[in-house]
Each structure stands twice: as C-alpha cells, then as structure tokens.
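# step 3/5: fold
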Amino acid sequence: MNREMELLIFGHAGEKMLVFPTRGGRFYEYENMRMVETLRGKIEAGELQLFCIDGIDPESFYCFWAHPSGRIQRHIQYEEYILNEVFPLMNAKNPHPVVVAHGCSLGAFQAANIAFRHPHLFRKVVAFSGRYDLTLNVEHFRDLFDGYYSEEIYFNTPTHFLPGLGCEDRLRHLREMEVVLTVGQEDPFRGNNEQFSDILRGKGVRHEMHLWQDRAHQGYYWRRMAGVYI
C-alpha cells in the first residue's frame, strides 16, 4: 500500500475471521458497533479470533477525483496487501485451518469478492446487507465506476465473473465453502442479493440467504445477525 496499515485483533485461538469495515469505515469500527461484544463468548472461549482490518474506500471505490481505472487498481493493491501481509500475520498468530471472510454493507462485498476470487483460502463467508455489483445504479447509490468497465472490474464483481467461472478446481473449493448472505426485505440491493443467490445455486454452491425485516442496514440488525450466523 506504500504506507502503514492498522488492524485490531481480538481473541487468541479458533477460527480466524477476516473482518472488513463498512463504507468509509476504519479498523476500529467493528468494535465501536459493539459487534465484538456480541461475539465475546466465542472469542473468550477460543472458538473465534477476529482480524479487523482497515478500509481504504476514499482511496479506491469512493475516490471520485481519480479515473475509475485508478480506483480499481487501488482496490487490487488492497487485495494484494491482504493476501501478502494480513494472511501471513494471521497464520503466524493462529494455526487454525479455517478462515472466515466477513463484513457488513460494503464490507460484505469485500468479504464475498475476495473469498470467491480465492476460494482455496477460505472456508466460510458471512456477508450482511451486501451489494455485489458496484456498477449498479439503485436509488441514490451510483455506479462507482461512472460507466467505465474493464477486465479488472469484471473480475472484481462477483455477479459478473461467477456465471462464467468454469475452472473445476475453483468450483470445487467454492462448493466446499459455507456461505451465508443476509439482506433486509426493504434493502435497495435485495434484488442484487437474490440474483447473487440464483447464480450460486446455478453453480451448485450451497448457501443460505436470509431476509430480515425492514431495511436491516445498521448496527442494530447486524449485531443480531452476528449472534445467529457467526
């Protein structure tokens, strides 16, 4: 990333959960939303260890002064940072074989995107209130690439690249993953979630998709979801 990056670690053992913040969120957001408190029992029992990483949205998807090609390139650098720096740290601190990708809102996109791009590295995805196509214009949510499209965007949009995925090795790893998606009944990206679920079903990827009442796009709901699905 060409700069220092911060993260927080909670717990000492158990499944390693890579936690992405919401849009514009920082590495301490998950704790501030009281999500860590919700999971305290599993953390203290050594069943779960959280690695809450920092976000870079103002440098990537929401860096609107930059050309869209630069936005996606910065995101790709972010993924490389996770794979080449965060993963070695996680493995050095905890030998447990299970890695879970997790996030809420834009963090759900980040979790699903990296897990479906690199399914051999993850055993589970838990994505709350996600948007899995950043090129959509829905309500006041805009296409984050302003109409620009490229191979890099295609391969970082789960609902675009998954339908064309034919690699049997990657599909095998995907089908071995546990996938949990949640979205509010009134969430503007409910349709995108249902499309994502249909794509996964068509690829033989077993998953759960849960509809929650109302828009369900805030910490109050995400804490309840975490208590049920993590």
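# step 4/5: annotate
Residues 68-93 form the longest helix (26 residues).
# step 5/5: archive (pending)
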